[in-house]
Specification:
Blueprint (H helix, E strand, L loop, with lengths): L5 H8 L5 E8 L5 E5 L5 E3 L2 E4 L5 E6 L8 E7 L7 H5 L7 E8 L6 E15 L2 E7 L44 H6 L36
Parallel strand pairs: 2-4
Antiparallel strand pairs: 1-2, 1-7, 3-4, 5-6, 6-9, 7-8, 8-9
Length: 219
């Protein structure tokens, strides 16, 4: 249970006409940025938060138990501090976002309402939507290999080995099947799946009268 600071409790009791939201973003390189939906700059916990930056809070969801909570922050790329080039370069991947609620007449008494890591950016023109994972999302990471028919590598990563800079593959996508890996990318030696792994359809397989029953692959 959160302890609401007295100045904020008083503001809530008075009708909450002076409340606003601040967003403090800490990149993996330690660089800190601050934004607020108030119409004037605010100093929140020693961080200068820009005003009229286009950032607003989106929906937030928190659940009991082991499910990771999530939130959203909506914004417009109107701030000089937050550029499209930096986002594309990955500088904000897994950056820590803190969302604070405060009384702008007394910003020192701020209440932390959410803390998580940026997980997904969605752009529509100049508009930007950011999905934020809660701290329990770290428990939802798959450890070790996953034995499945499809390849579990990402196209172009070190395990895949496909050079996406090669003009032959510039416009290609991958559906992670062994047939696509072989026919489209000629990369079957690096295929990271198990295409011969029996699935549910194996239960319905019946014996066939064919000279090709050699005990080899059913592909």
């Amino acid at each position: 249970m959160r302890q609401v600071p007295e100045p904020m409790a008083a503001a809530l009791a008075a009708g909450a006409a002076t409340l606003c939201t601040a967003f403090i973003l800490t990149r993996s390189d330690g660089h800190v940025l601050g934004f607020t939906d108030h119409d004037r700059p605010l100093n929140v916990n020693g961080v200068a938060c820009q005003a009229t930056s286009g950032w607003t809070a989106g929906a937030a969801d928190a659940e009991l138990g082991g499910k990771p909570g999530e939130a959203a922050a909506l914004g417009v790329l109107s701030s000089d501090a937050l550029t499209e080039a930096d986002i594309a370069a990955g500088l904000y991947d897994l950056a820590v976002l803190e969302i604070w609620r405060l009384d702008w007449t007394s910003p020192a008494a701020a209440l932390l309402i959410f803390r998580g890591r940026l997980s997904k950016f969605t752009r529509q023109g100049e508009s930007l939507s950011v999905a934020v994972e809660g701290p329990l999302a770290a428990l939802d990471v798959v450890a070790g290999r996953s034995y499945q028919r499809l390849c579990d590598a990402r196209l172009g990563d070190a395990r895949c080995g496909v050079n996406l800079a090669d003009p032959r593959y510039a416009a290609h996508t991958c559906d992670f099947t062994w047939r696509t890996c072989q026919a489209r990318f000629d990369n079957l030696l690096n295929f990271q799946g198990f295409p011969d792994l029996p699935g549910d359809d194996f239960l319905a397989v019946t014996a066939a009268d064919s000279p090709l029953n050699t005990g080899g692959s059913r592909r």
